[in-house]
């Protein structure tokens, strides 16, 4: 029984190691500025982009943007990225003034966005993954998962039970 538990825990640990490696690659790409993971926290872009979705944004040149594109731009009001659809673009001294509006919003955003160089443009949408990530990082979930991981590690370190060698009975 212990051998079976040990083997199962090894398989689970290898799967978790692979997931950890993937997380490390995503973290490295984010830290290097190659991608920007975004968790959607409002319904302003529904039904195309739902609350709880995970968006992976990549950099796009500001001069390639067109009306109708969905982009993530820093808001002067909230100091965070806002992901909405472009409704107007005006060139302004080597930069651009962009007006955006959420698909489910009645009005355009309160302030225009001034951009130059590169902007974040969502290229991958993972439905519901944002909710999973947010929940997994709360202490109520993360601490038990960590303790379970330690338990799996402990199971793999258990030494196998040595069974005595049976010798034929002599008379």
Describe the 3D structure.
The model has no long low-confidence stretch (mean pLDDT 88). The protein has a single domain (2-128, 137-157), classed as Ribbon (Umud Fragment, subunit A), CATH 2.10.109. The chain has three helices and seven strands. With 171 residues, it is α+β, with helices and mostly antiparallel strands. The two termini are 34 Å apart. 33% of the residues lie in helices and 29% in strands.
CATH topology: Umud Fragment, subunit A
What is the CATH superfamily classification? Umud Fragment, subunit A
Shape: elongated
Q: Termini distance?
A: 34 Å
Number of strands: 7
- What's the CATH first level? Mainly Beta
Rg, alpha carbons: 25 Å
Question: Strand count, sense and closure of the main sheet?
Answer: 4 strands, antiparallel
Written as H for each helix and E for each strand, in order along the chain, the element string is HEEEEEEEHH
- What's the assembly state of these chains? single chain
How are strands sequenced across the largest beta sheet? 3-4-5-6
Structural class label: alpha+beta
**Percent helix range:** 25-40%
**Number of helices, where a helix is a run of at least 4 consecutive DSSP H or I residues:** 3
Mean pLDDT equals 88
Q: How many domains would you count in the coordinates?
A: 1
Q: Which spans of ≥5 residues are poorly predicted at pLDDT below 50? A: none
